[in-house]
Design brief:
By secondary structure, chain A is an alpha/beta fold. Chain A contains eight helices and twelve strands. In chain A, helix 3 packs parallel to helix 4. Chain B is built from twelve helices and twelve strands. Chain B is an alpha+beta fold. Classes of the chains: A alpha/beta, B alpha+beta.
């Protein structure tokens, strides 16, 4: 059923490579395996994979360079795999255009959940953004700038609405702080980070019953935010 | 005139008296010779004054000089003034001569004695400083406390020409060691002593402590009655004992420094061993976890799945453990850098709870946070780790039907985070120790849930790195609370921007 999706696995560790390819096989996805950056670039150009799963620590190339090179000609989804203590690299990869990240060690379920989100986006890009977006109790009307929760209208300032709609349009994906700032404020200064946090706190108070147990807006500590649409 | 001071024979009063009388007699005979050859009386006066000078040089103290002055005057009167051989005087001019002669003699004798005395003192001081110098330089070469003791008894025995022994003690004053040397011998004997023996050895002897107000390193013992109190010798010996003390103190400090260095090195070796082992375990563990998870998906037989589930759970636990050890060694080596940033408390708590809730087996987690947004400067990742560890710890002490509460409160420039459970609570004896490295409570339940107490040590290290504090306590109505605070100050303030 899913056999038309082709994944490229770029990973030098044999164990993790076979783990990922096994996970893909359980869902009957097709996959190509490469161990170096050069092979990966070749495979990307020749085989046109639908999704790239990329380890940041490759022996011959910096994973970041691969992301930048790919982004120069294609917006194919890229999921980054990184070690636990590579937070900085993770953020750089996301800012360079990676769509999501996984931290080693991860489970099959985690990997598959991320893949589902990515694939949904790939499909959704072909259809225009719906005028009205519904998830759980939440309903957002992009045309009329209207937000309702369980049928009750909630007042959003234009800025707050922009942040919310940015998150929803990228639902499931992690958006870094600097990405949101660039998209909504148009500029990015370190000091703006704090205003973003205040905005997020306000939005959370409007949407969530319990701000400490968020249903819609998930914090990725030290990285950014993610809108949970499942 | 070193003879008069160095030889003890000359210092005895009868001898000195005899010297005085002999010299005076000689002066009288010489004067008679002069008188018979027709020299004038003034020469005789000069001869007597000279004799007083000689006597003062040859005797110790003022007394013989003064006696000689008076006797000399009477001799002059008796033998050389008219009427001869009486103490009467016809010519009144002689009275003046007598007085002048007496005053001159006394002055000369006292001056001479004074010079003699100060010369003696100077020589004595020179000798002392020579001895001190010799002892100090040999002490400087000594390489340990027992070396110092050996050198000291040898030098003292040399100096005083008698048996000497030194008893050294350790810092707890329990082990005693004796270094003894016999008069005229070069060999130093060493033996261990008991407390009772120390008392019997020192009884009836001249004992000099090697000590200052705080430490006592030992005793120097000399034969009793050999040294009189307050004498020059006693002063010299006590200044030697100060030198010995300084040398022993130096050796002790050097030993302590060496020990501290060794301890630090051993500690460093231990943690680097722990780190490299943990680091090497990471990769194979990831393999085991991965393969067992794959097996879980592909196996069909219920029993096999159960077995593999066990492998998977254990390898997950081990992975977590290895990560904990790695972050702890990182913290211990000061490599952990805290990137403080203002973070919204609700975001951190929310994330921690959603991560931890994977392993709570149905325990409900209630969160209570202030309604307003609270920003605290912190390293969000690390504080999230602290909260996850605390929740895991609460899970360990509760059963699935229990409840875990997380409360955040702001007060007086601090933000308190409390993780409260209504489980079994902690042994009151353990409360102060739960944050110690590798501490596990000694309860019968201890082996039912594994853990070597790393999680809470990491919490403490992280909270301390934020200048906060972490406390464990039991609740009045059952269960335990672990709470910590972070100071609100110290990060970039939102208002300032």
């Amino acid at each position: 059923m899913n056999s038309n999706e082709l994944f490229l696995i770029v990973e030098d560790d044999k164990q993790i490579r076979s783990f990922i390819s096994f996970s893909l096989k359980t869902q009957e996805y097709r996959s190509i395996e490469t161990t170096t950056g050069k092979e990966a670039m070749k495979a990307i150009v020749n085989a046109h994979p639908d999704v790239v799963i990329l380890d940041l620590g490759l022996p011959d190339m910096d994973g970041l360079d691969i992301i930048r090179q790919v982004r120069a000609f294609s917006d194919m989804p890229i999921i980054v795999v990184s070690a636990r203590d590579q937070d900085r690299e993770k953020i750089e990869a996301l800012d360079a255009g990676a769509d999501d990240y996984l931290t080693k060690p991860f489970s099959i379920n985690e990997l598959l959940a991320r893949l589902r989100v990515i694939l949904r986006h790939v499909k959704r890009e072909d259809t225009p953004v719906p005028e009205i977006y519904r998830v759980g109790e939440l309903e957002v009307n992009f045309e009329k700038h209207l937000v309702t929760l369980s049928g009750n209208e909630i007042h959003f300032t234009p800025m707050e609405f922009n942040v919310l709609s940015l998150l929803i349009r990228n639902s499931g994906k992690v958006l870094t702080h600097s990405y949101i700032l660039k998209e909504v404020w148009g500029s990015y200064l370190d000091s703006d980070m704090q205003s973003l946090r205040v905005f997020m706190a306000n939005i959370r108070r409007k949407l969530e019953k319990d701000p400490a147990k968020p249903r819609y807006i998930i914090t990725e500590v030290g990285i950014g935010y993610r809108f949970a649409d499942e | 005139m070193s003879i008069s001071h160095n030889s003890k024979l000359f210092q005895k009063p009868p001898v000195q008296m005899a010297v005085t009388l002999l010299v005076l007699a000689g002066a009288t005979l010489l004067s008679m010779l002069f008188k018979n050859t027709g020299f004038s009386g003034t020469n005789i006066v000069v001869i007597y004054i000279l004799s007083v000078l000689i006597i003062s040089r040859m005797t110790v103290g003022y007394i013989y000089g003064i006696i000689a002055s008076v006797l000399g005057m009477f001799c002059f009167n008796f033998f050389f003034t008219e009427p001869y051989h009486t103490f009467n005087v016809y010519n009144e001019n002689y009275l003046v001569t007598f007085v002048v002669m007496l005053i001159a003699s006394i002055l000369i004798s006292t001056l001479t004695s004074k010079i003699m005395h100060s010369q003696y003192a100077a020589r004595q001081r020179e000798k002392q400083s020579n001895i001190l110098f010799q002892i100090t330089s040999s002490l400087a070469k000594a390489g340990s406390i027992s070396d110092v003791a050996t050198v000291s008894v040898r030098s003292l025995s040399n100096l005083l020409d008698c048996d000497v022994f030194c008893i050294t003690t350790d810092r707890e004053q329990q082990l005693y060691e004796e270094y003894s040397i016999k008069k005229g011998n070069r060999m130093v004997d060493t033996r261990k002593l008991s407390t009772a023996e120390v008392e019997s050895e020192t009884a009836g002897r001249f004992v000099l402590p090697i000590a200052n107000r705080r430490y006592q390193y030992g005793l120097i013992c000399l034969p009793g009655g050999r040294i009189s109190e307050e004498s020059e010798e006693e002063k010299l010996i006590s200044s030697i004992s100060v030198q010995i003390f300084v040398a022993m103190e130096r050796e002790r400090l050097a030993e302590e420094r060496e020990k501290a260095k060794n301890d630090a090195e051993r500690e460093k070796f231990k943690s680097s061993l722990l780190r490299s082992i943990s680091h090497d375990l990471r990769t194979p563990l990831a393999g085991i976890t991965g393969v067992s998870e794959m097996l879980l998906y592909s196996l069909k037989d219920e029993n096999n799945i159960k077995l593999v589930q066990g492998i998977y759970d254990d390898s997950c636990w081990l992975t977590q453990m290895v990560e904990n050890i790695l972050s702890l060694t990182k913290i211990q080596e000061g490599k952990l850098t805290v990137h403080k940033q203002l973070e919204a408390v609700e975001e951190i708590v929310g994330e921690a709870v959603s991560h931890a809730s994977k392993y709570t087996d149905g325990r409900s987690i209630e969160i209570e946070i202030p309604d307003n947004v609270v920003f605290v400067p912190m390293d969000g990742k690390l504080i999230e780790q602290v909260l996850i560890n605390l929740i895991n710890n609460a899970v360990k002490h509760t059963s699935p039907s229990d409840e875990i509460n997380i409360v955040v409160k702001q007060a007086k420039g601090k933000v308190w985070f409390s993780v409260i459970d209504n489980g079994t609570g902690m042994n009151p004896r353990d409360l102060s120790k739960v944050f110690d490295l590798f501490y596990t409570e000694e309860s019968p339940r201890a082996d039912s849930k594994r853990g070597i107490g790393l999680g809470l040590s990491i919490c403490k290290a992280i909270v301390s790195a934020h200048r906060g504090q972490i406390i464990a306590e039991n609740n009045k109505d059952g269960g335990a609370t672990i709470r910590f605070y972070l100071p609100c100050e110290g990060g970039k303030k939102y208002e300032q921007q």
